[in-house]
Amino acid sequence: MIHRQKIADIQGGLHVVKKSHLFGTDGIRGPYGKYPIVESLAYVLGQKLYKYFTKPSEQSSGNKKIPGTLLTCRDSRYSSVSLEQALHQGVKDVGGIPVSMSVAPTPACLFELKKMDVLCGVVISASHNPYTDNGFKIFNSDGQKLTDEQENNLARELTEDTSCMSKERNFSQPLVTQAPENYYRYLKEHLDRIIACHSGVKKTVTVVIVSAHGACSQIAKRLFTDSKTFRFHVINASPNGKNINLGVGATSPNSLQTKVKELRADVGIAYDGDGDRILLCSREGEIINGDVLLGLLAIWLHKTGSHDGRRFATTIVANGGLSKVLAARGIKTYHSLVGDRELAELMEKQDVYFGGEPSGHLIFRDHLLCGDGLYATLKILEFTLTSLLHEPSCHWSELIKMVPLRSSHMISKEVLEKVPLSEMKELATILLEVDKGLKQSSPDGEGRVLWRYSGTEKKLRILVEGHQKSEVIQVANMLMAKSLESIAQYCKIVR
What we know:
Strand content: 15-25%
Helix content: 25-40%
Structural class: alpha/beta
Number of strands: 19
Largest sheet: 5 strands, mixed
Mean pLDDT: 89
Distance between the termini: 23 Å
CATH class of the largest domain: Alpha Beta
C-alpha cells in the first residue's frame, strides 16, 4: 500500500510527517534509468491509465463525453522524450489516442485539460530535481491530481505487472503534437489587460526572468516582450537536455541575483524546471522569503476586494509569523499538509481564493488548482504596478517589511533510507523534548520542530522555529546530526 504524507501530532506538540512510497507528494519521481523511471514502466503506465480512466466510475463528474484521448507534455530533460514516447505507445496499444504538447510547463497541461475532452493528463518531469531525475505527474480530466485511492489502485496494478521491469523494448515512434496555444493566449491577454489598467504608472518597470533552461523557456521568451510599461530580460532559456536547473532557477538563484543587481532591475523572478513555482529577488539582490511573498499578495488581494480575501491557505511548513500578520488584518489562515494537491483540496473545502506554499507554489483558484509560475508572474507584475501607483518610489525591499516573520531555519539532507520515526524511539524522544523547550523559550509559546521526509526526493527536512535566530540554527543542526546518526544506525542493524 502507498502511504501519502500523513501528519502525526505527537502529544499535541511535535509535528512529524511520515514517508511515502511509489507516489510522493508530486507523482512518481526518481533517477532516470532506475525503476520506476524507465520506459517499460512508462509503457505500462500508459496502458493502465487508459484502461483505468475509461471505466465509467472514473470518468469526469461533469456531463461532457470523454473520448479516448490522453494529453501529455514534458520538460526539457534529455530523458523526457523517450519516456513520453513509451507512454504514448502504451496508450495506442490499448486503443487510446495520445497527444503531446511537447515541451511545456505543468500548468499548461492542466489549462489545456480544462479546454479539451480528454481522459487525463500526464506531465513527464522531475520539477526542480537535477536533469538525471525524471518522473510522472498524473491529472484527471478536470486538471486535478489523483486521490489517494486512485494512486493506490494504479500503484497496485503497476507493481503487480512484471513487464514494468523489462528493459528490452525500444520506443522511438514520433509523437502526435499540439502546441499549448490556448494557454499562451490566455496569459498574453491577461498581461495586456494589466498593462492597460495601469497606464498611470510613469516609469518603465525592469524585470528579469530566469527560466532555468526548463519547460517555461519558449513561452517566457514569447510572452515577455518589451512595452512602455515593462522591459523584460529573459535569461537561462536555452535548454539542451542536460542544463535544466543546473545552477539556475528557483533552487539556484545566483544567476537571478547577479543579473538583477547588474541591471538594477525592479524585480527578478525565477522558475523551476516544470514551471509551477517561482522565486523572487529584489533590486538589491535579496531573495524574497516565500512566506513574505504569500503575505504581501494575501494582504493586497484582501485590500483590492476583487476576490474574497478574508481567507488564505498555506501548508504546515509556513512560518508561524505569517498567520499572525494576516490575522491582524482580518485574514484567517488555513493549513494543509505539504504538497499542492493537499493545499488545493483545502482551498476548495474552505472556499479560499488564494493560497500557496513558501517554496513558491502560488495557487489562484479561479485560474488553476496548481501552482503556475507564469500566471503568478503576471499577478506579481500587477501587484508591483499597483504599488507604484500609490507610491512611485516604492521597491520590494521596502514592501517586505510589511510581513515580519518568526525566527526559523530549515535544513535538508540526503538520507540512506526514509526510516519511519516510529522505528527510532530515542530520536523521537529527543525531538519531543526539543519541541517542548522551544515552546517554553518563545514569548508567544509557539516555537516548534517540523520533521519530515521529502515527498519528491530521498531527503530529510527539518524546520525549527523559535525566538532567537542563533538558537534555531543551532537546534536545527543538532537535530539533523542526531537524525542522520539514528538513520545510519537503523540501516546498519537492518542490513
